[in-house]
Each structure stands twice: as structure tokens, then as C-alpha cells.
Amino acid sequence: MTPALIPDRDQQITAWALAARDGDADAIEHFIRATHLDVWRFVVHLGGDVHGADDLTQETYLRALAGLPRFAGRSCARTWLLSIARRTVADRYRAAAARPRIAETTDWRAVAERAQPAGLPGFEEGVALLELLATLDAPRREAFILTQLLGLPYADAASATGCPVGTVRSRVSRAREHMTALLRAAEDSCPLTATPLTHIHYRVICF
């Protein structure tokens, strides 16, 4: 979906959320279908855990549906939903921190490779993007994902994260600078090799 179509999409999503709040069962289904991929991608990138993403996504929607009676439509419903997803991931981390850890997954590439069939178009580029995102600190990664991958306007991303718009812009800018520097270093070290990292340079970061 092109950026120009995102406002219309968000308006429709918000309309479905309001109708769902008023008891329209079809609107609930439309709302979930229209936002499910965004929520799933967001929790994956925040937590780096593909295998736990389905549970986190389900928990997000359970919380959202329970909170629908209080949704007044003052903000975009997608922004509101991603705010809930953010809190759901944070709560899961707090709960995990309170109990002994048996194992911790930090290899994003291995997680992605186990969860997706290799050989599909864009697979290597997607794994490479996960690697780049993993090098960012959490606030910059979150800001970049919300605005550059999920297409939220900066104001909505600021609302979802609870920080000023200027802070979101700064985090995205610094994230781009950091990721671009890594890409250039990769290109300089292997100038004759077209790696997945170089393929996503202009598609994802420089636009």
C-alpha cells in the first residue's frame, strides 16, 4: 500500500473500530483482518520472537476488544491498537524478567529462518532487515518500525509511544544513519558481491 493511501485506510479502520464498539460483528471481523499483519509484525520486531508473536497478537486483540467500549475515535484506531500491542509486549517482558530464564533467543536470523520457508522472493532481504533492526536500540527500532515499515504518520507514532513528535523524528533519522553506515561498511568490504543488505539499502532505508 502506498503512503498516499494510508490516511484513507486508517479512516476505514477507525470506522470499523467504532462500529465494532457499537456491536457490529462484521465490523469486528473487518477490523481484525485489516490490522492483524501490522500487529503481528510490530510485536515480532519489538520482541524479536517470531514463535511468540501469535500469542502476543492474540493477547493484543483480547485487550483491544475488551477496551473497545472506551474507544472514542479521537485518534486513529490503528494507532490505538499498536499502543495496546506495545503495552502487551512490555508486560510480557516484565513478567519474563520476574521469573528465571531457561533460554533467551538473541539470534534474529535463526529465528526468522526457522519460522519462514527459505527460497521465497524477498526472504533473504527480510532476514537482512531483521539483522539491521537488531543492531538498533529499542526506542530507535520502535520508531523506525512504526513510521517506515508500518507507515504510521510521525504524530501517530508519537501518540503510540508516548513521546514528542520531534523525538520520533530524531530516532528515525538516527536509525537511518546507523543502518546506512552498516550497509556502506558491508558494501566497502565486499564491493563486488550483491548481498541482501545492499539490496534493501534503497528499498527500506533511503526513501
Automatic annotation (TrEMBL):
**Which key words are in the record?**
DNA-binding, Sigma factor, Transcription, Transcription regulation
Q: Which InterPro entries match?
A: RNA_pol_sigma-70-like, RNA_pol_sigma-70_dom, RNA_pol_sigma70_ECF_CS, RNA_pol_sigma70_r2, RNA_pol_sigma70_r4_t2, RNA_pol_sigma_r2, RNA_pol_sigma_r3/r4-like, WH-like_DNA-bd_sf
Family matches, as SUPFAM superfamilies: Sigma2 domain of RNA polymerase sigma factors, Sigma3 and sigma4 domains of RNA polymerase sigma factors
Pfam families xrefs: Sigma70_r2, Sigma70_r4_2
According to the entry, every stretch annotated as the RNA polymerase sigma-70 region domain falls at 32-97
> Which GO MF terms does the UniProt record name?
DNA binding; sigma factor activity
Domain RNA polymerase sigma factor 70 region 4 type, residue spans: 128-179
Does the record bear tRNA-binding in its keywords? Answer: no
> What are the recorded Gene Ontology BP terms?
DNA-templated transcription initiation; response to stress
The organism's superkingdom is given as Bacteria
**Has the keyword Flavoprotein been applied to this entry?**
no
User: Hey, which family's this protein in?
Assistant: Belongs to the sigma-70 factor family. ECF subfamily.
Tell me the NCBIfam families matching this sequence.
sigma70-ECF
Query: Which named protein is this?
Result: RNA polymerase sigma factor
Q: Which organism is it from?
A: Streptomyces himastatinicus ATCC 53653
